[in-house]
Design brief:
Elements lengths: L1 E6 L4 H4 L2 H10 L2 E6 L4 H13 L3 E5 L14 H9 L4 E10 L7 H18 L3 E6 L2 H11 L6 E3 L6 H9 L3 E4 L9 H9 L5 E3 L21 H12 L3 H16 L3
Parallel strand pairs: 1-2, 2-3, 3-4, 4-5, 5-6, 6-7, 7-8
Helix pairs in contact: 4-5, 5-6, 9-10
Length: 256
């Protein structure tokens, strides 16, 4: 069985056809899905989704792009929302995005720390988005790191040096359909270095459709292409990749 550790089922082109999306995922042996929160409006849809489908879990978080709109979302606000639903199993996505800078860097960093502190108090994992912000992301995570902070770096596209530093603070790292892209040769070398015990897989749907489906809206069933590529990189069977990445997800998020 396969677990999609990061998708956005609240987005319109998935949400409006969710029964069919989930059926196709099941056909491709996708057993569990984690649908990721980016805004307060997103969270309302996520609560509806996880109440309807037993195999879908959710998170609470404000995406770094959106932080300027939600500057009142602090640790206490996050904890209150998570405590009201047992199927909200992670905090995020949060983090830093200096590529687009849709929100001021200072606001992003403050929001990131609030999310981290909430995750530590709740003792549930934090899902981290980082783009063009490796140094600041790592510095904040390292400064905050302790036994109550479990970290998942989502959609990893970073450098080998960054990956090594993340492994030093016991992070899990998730890879997406980007590893199937022809331009991802350096990323493949980095992924080959990361132990399978630290890896998860995701679609980030409806974004980042893997080859050979680029140009189409992504969905959880397409994760099989990422599984197949990771099996090639790791030189193990695709069944072992599915088994090990799902076991890692279950361990990280305490899924029985």
């Amino acid at each position: 069985m396969i677990t999609d550790s990061h998708c956005h089922l609240d987005y319109e082109n998935l949400y409006n056809h969710l029964d069919d999306v989930i059926k196709r995922a099941k056909t491709n042996l996708v057993s569990n899905l984690l649908t990721i929160c980016t805004t307060l409006e997103s969270f309302e849809k996520i609560k509806t989704i996880i109440n309807k489908y037993n195999n879908i879990f959710g998170t609470f978080g404000i995406h770094p792009h959106e932080t300027k709109k939600y500057q009142d979302v602090n640790k206490e606000f996050i904890i209150d929302n998570v405590n009201n639903n047992k199927k909200i199993i992670g905090i995020g996505e949060t983090g830093l995005d200096y590529y687009y800078n849709h929100s001021d860097k200072k606001i992003q960093r403050k929001s990131f720390v609030e999310h981290i502190n909430a995750a530590k108090e709740l003792n549930i994992p934090i899902i981290v988005h980082t783009r063009n912000a490796e140094d600041d992301t790592f510095d904040i995570l390292k400064e905050s790191s302790d036994k109550n902070l479990n970290i998942l770096i989502h959609c990893f596209t970073g450098s080998l040096e960054f990956a090594k530093k993340l492994l030093d603070i016991n992070c899990y790292i998730s890879v997406s359909g980007i590893i199937t892209f022809n331009k991802s040769k350096e990323l493949l070398k980095t992924v080959s270095y990361i132990p399978i015990e630290n890896l998860l897989v995701e679609t980030d749907s409806p974004y980042l459709s893997p080859s050979p489906l680029r140009g189409k809206p992504n969905e959880p069933s397409y994760i099989v292409h990422t599984i197949n590529k990771l099996a090639e990189i790791k030189k193990i069977s695709k069944e072992d990749v599915a088994k090990k990445t799902t076991a890692n997800f279950n361990k990280l998020f305490k899924i029985q």
